[in-house]
Structures are given as structure tokens and as C-alpha cells.
Write a structure and sequence with these properties.
Layout lengths: L6 E3 L1 E8 L2 E12 L6 E3 L7 H21 L6 E6 L3 H4 L13 H13 L2 E3 L2 E3 L2 E2 L6 E2 L4 H10 L5 E5 L4 H6 L2 H12 L6 E5 L2 H8 L2 H10 L13 H10 L2 H14 L3 H18 L6 H10 L3 H4 L10 H8 L7 H10 L9
Parallel strand pairs: 2-7, 4-5, 7-10, 10-11
Antiparallel strand pairs: 1-6, 2-3, 3-5, 8-9
Helix pairs in contact: 1-3, 7-9, 8-10, 8-11, 10-11, 11-14, 12-15
């Protein structure tokens, strides 16, 4: 997914059933410093015991495996659900029903762990049924799609594919036909993302800029992309494939769209990453100059575009250059502190 929308870290919208209602609620996760408890739940006891056992025995280990593969330390988390107004008005305890919240819980945890922004206009539903991240069908799918459709803040709905093997085994022919018709009725009114695996949700719903920022901040930007061999490797693949290409494409799109805050944020994170790695990014100045020269002149005159790097970031980068980088850092100097595009 490449379209930009409002994004948050550790916050994912879930379509679920609570107290007999289909609702859209944010699942919120955060990394905790204390390591005595791996997972702490919010003050509202909305997760029944069966859900907690499933999260702790199946979802947390999956998150751990991914974090470990990407070189991130095992983390402790807090997790909660924002209580919607309609439920709050009932003034009584409430709990979620079933395991359709699995996908949103996983995404919230991995988002918090990797500092990975997630779009706030997509509602997710799906049961994680295997240790490798397969997504199984859920109850009340038609009603959840309708809840997503009626929520003005939601423009997309991510749900278990109806034609997957597990769905075909779970649903009766009549139920399959009915739900398929209900989902089709949503076309053109809301974006539909049908998935069979967590990797599909990442590939279809997470924005490229979010994947790049997370990789730079969590320091796996140059991770060698896993081949798609099993469930976890499929997830890792979607988190890490073509990150350098996505970086340059996102940077180009941000310049064209005149999203200058994003332009400078991307370049700042890029420079920080290589400074922390104590390496100079090969041919960085040349690549940046080539990108700018390929764009229309009026775009390059956008107020605030230049300088592209602060002197502080430039100085931190050139500490790690070699003799063969001298011509490149001169180009970068003109694009950064000197602010003279015509000299590159």
C-alpha cells in the first residue's frame, strides 16, 4: 500500500463484537520498560481469560520471533482497548467475544515493538489460527463490514478471504453465498482487503513510508530480505523487502507532493541510521542529486525544500567517509548545508 493517511504507532482499529454490538475500536499497545510481566492489560477487563491465554501463548511468541529475526530485543507490552461511547453509556463491565481481534492485537504489538506506523482509517478483523500467522474466518463478518462502512473515520476494511481453504471449510455454502454478497455490496463504498495471512495484511495495508521509517528507526533497514519459505519468513519478507527502493520512491513522492515535513523526516532518519551504523551510505549524494535533477524545475523551487540536510546531520555522516567518498560528500554538501542545487 502506498497511499498516505493518518498513521499512529501502537494503535490499530479493530472490528469486533462486544455486548452483542459490532463496533470499531482502537487496540492500543505500548512497550513497557519493566520486564517482570511480559504483557499487562489495561484497567478495563475487556479481554476474557480465554483471549488472554491465546494472546500470551500464540500471538506474543509470534511477535517475539519476528523481533528476534530483525535484531530487536524481546519487549514487554501493555495492551488495552478504547471503550466506545455506546458501551461506556451502559455503565457496566464489558468483554470482547471470540478471537476476531487477533489481527489487530498482533499489528498493535508489532507496531509498538518496531515503531511501525499503522493507518488509522482501516479496520481489521481476523483470527490468527497458526503459529505461522495464518488468518482464519471470523463470526459476524457481514455485520463487521457494515460497522466499518458506517464509521466515517474508516475508508478500508481488512478481513479473512472468503475463498481461502479455511473459509470454505468453516462456512456453509449458504453462509458463504450470503457473506460474499454482503461484502460485494461494500465495493465502491469502502476499500476491501481480503487476506489469508498476516503477510497479506502488511503487504496490502501498511504504507511504504511507514515500513521505511520503522526500518530506519529500529535499525533493520539493510536486513537481507528473507525468502518466502514459511509463515514467519513471509511476514519478515513483507516488512523488509525492497526497503531502499521504497525509501527513494517515498522520498520522490513526498517531494512531488510538497510534503516537506516528510521529506526532511525521511532524510533525517536516513542520516541518523548511517551515523549510528558508523558508515557513509555509498553514493548517497549522487543518488540524491540524480533524483532532484529528474524532477520538474518548479517543484525544486518549493520554499523550504532546501537545504535537504542540516549541518549537524551532514557533519555526523562525513565522520565515516573514506577517500573514495570525497566527490560524493561534496555533492551532498551543496544539497545540504551550502544549499546550492545548481552546483551539483
Amino acid at each position: 500500500m502506498n497511499k498516505k493517511s493518518q498513521q499512529s504507532i501502537g494503535r490499530v482499529k479493530a472490528a469486533l463484537v462486544a455486548e452483542g454490538q459490532c463496533i470499531i475500536v482502537p487496540v492500543i499497545a505500548a512497550v513497557r520498560k519493566a520486564q517482570n510481566n511480559r504483557l499487562v492489560y489495561g484497567s478495563d477487563s475487556v479481554f476474557p481469560e480465554s483471549s488472554r491465554e491465546h494472546i500470551e501463548s500464540d500471538i506474543i511468541p509470534l511477535v517475539d520471533r519476528i523481533m528476534n529475526k530483525l535484531g530487536r530485543p524481546k519487549a514487554s507490552f501493555s495492551i488495552s482497548i478504547e471503550t466506545p461511547g455506546a458501551i461506556t453509556a451502559m455503565e457496566q463491565p464489558w468483554t470482547i467475544a471470540g478471537r476476531s481481534i487477533d489481527l489487530a492485537v498482533f499489528l498493535a504489538l508489532i507496531s509498538a515493538g518496531l515503531q511501525l506506523p499503522v493507518s488509522q482509517d482501516i479496520a481489521y478483523t481476523g483470527h490468527i489460527s497458526t503459529s505461522g500467522g495464518d488468518i482464519s474466518q471470523v463470526k459476524s463478518l457481514s455485520l463487521k463490514a457494515q460497522a466499518a462502512l458506517e464509521d466515517l473515520a474508516i475508508t478500508g476494511f481488512c478481513f479473512p478471504a472468503l475463498d481461502s481453504d479455511t473459509s470454505m471449510k468453516t462456512l456453509t455454502p449458504k453462509a458463504h453465498e450470503t457473506i460474499t454478497g454482503d461484502i460485494r455490496a461494500c465495493r465502491g463504498r469502502i476499500k476491501l482487503f481480503d487476506i489469508e495471512h498476516i503477510a497479506d495484511a502488511i503487504q496490502k495495508t501498511l504504507a511504504h513510508d511507514a515500513l521505511v521509517i520503522a526500518a530506519l528507526q529500529s535499525r533493520y533497514f539493510e536486513y537481507e530480505c528473507d525468502a518466502k519459505e514459511n509463515g514467519v519468513s513471509n511476514i519478515i519478507h513483507e516488512l523488509t523487502c525492497d526497503l531502499k527502493t521504497k525509501f527513494w520512491n517515498t522520498l520522490e513522492n513526498s517531494i512531488i507532493e510538497k510534503d516537506l515535513a516528510q521529506v526532511h523526516h525521511l532524510l533525517d532518519r536516513f542520516a541518523r541510521y548511517y551515523s549510528n551504523e558508523r558508515r557513509y551510505p555509498s553514493r548517497f549524494g549522487e543518488s540524491l542529486a540524480r533524483l532532484l535533477m529528474s524532477l520538474p524545475g518548479p517543484i525544486l523551487k518549493s520554499p523550504g525544500l532546501m537545504p535537504m540536510l542540516t549541518m549537524k546531520r551532514y557533519d555526523a555522516l562525513i565522520e565515516h567517509t573514506s577517500e573514495e567518498d570525497q566527490n560524493d560528500i561534496e555533492r551532498l554538501y551543496y544539497l545540504g548545508p551550502l544549499n546550492q542545487l545548481d552546483r551539483v
